[in-house]
Structure formats: structure tokens, C-alpha cells
Amino acid sequence: MRAEPKYPPVTEVAMLSLALIVAGGIYLSAHLPEHVSLAPPVILLALSALLMFGNIGSLTRVQGFNWKRFWAVARWSLVAYAVLAGLIEYVFLQNHLSGGPLVVLTLSLVVFAVHVPTLLGFTVARYHNSAPADPAVAPH
């Protein structure tokens, strides 16, 4: 039996990153359409983006990770989340959002649209059994 590689805390870091993005979005939404300070959501966005890049970077250093399975899932998830992010961006534009809040929310959508497919691909690749099943133990 092959030992499972030691994985970094990808899921936990992804959830923290997504929580920061949501908190920034809620903060901005609660203050619009009046003037809103962009400092808190920009800080939350920067922290979230750093966590995302660190998360992906730590995943690339895992020996024996099933990248083929990861990309099989992450690629199509990325397409779906890019469409979702595009639809949300369209709503922002239809509501005449502009300037700094639009930039911050757009970048937050980019982090969201990258991190969720990464999380989905990681979870499937981590638990995918790449070894052939033993027919003696397979359910009938």
C-alpha cells in the first residue's frame, strides 16, 4: 500500500481566503451607493489574493500529486466559475457601479473564480484512487 503524501492545508486556506473576499464584498455592498472607504476591502482582497497564491504554490510542491485528475476537474470548474463571475460582473455594470468599488469587486471575483475551481480540483485529485481496484474486493 502506497503512503498518502502529506498535503498542505489547502482546504482551510481556501475557505479563509473566500471568507475574506465575502467580508470585503459585504462591506462594500453595505455602504454603496454612497462614498465608501476602499481601504478595508482592498486589505481583505490583498490578504485573500496572497492566501490564494500561497495555497497554489504550496500545492505545486506536493510530491506525487495527481495533476491529471486535478486539471480534469479544475479546468471545467474554472469555465463554469468564469461564466458565473462574468454574470455577476454584468450585474455590477448594469447597476452603474464604477471606479474603485468596481475594480475591487472585479478583482475579488477573479480570486473567487480561481480559488473555488482550485479547491474542487484539489479535493477530487486528493481522494481519487489511481490504483486499479482489486477484483477480489470489488462489490458485486
Describe this structure in words.
Helix content is 72%, strand content 0%. It has 4 helices and no strands. It has helices at 10-31, 39-60, 67-94, 99-127. The two termini are 23 Å apart.
Primary descriptors:
140 residues; 4 helices; mainly alpha
Put the structure in a nutshell.
The protein is mainly α and 140 residues long.
Q: What layout of secondary structure does this protein have?
A:
Blueprint: H1 10-31, H2 39-60, H3 67-94, H4 99-127
Give the termini distance in whole angstroms. Answer: 23 Å
As a percent range, the share of strand residues is under 5%
Write down the overall mean pLDDT. 89
Which sheet architecture does the biggest sheet show?
A: none
Percent helix, as a range, is over 70%
Taking all Cα atoms into account, the compactness measure Rg is: 19 Å
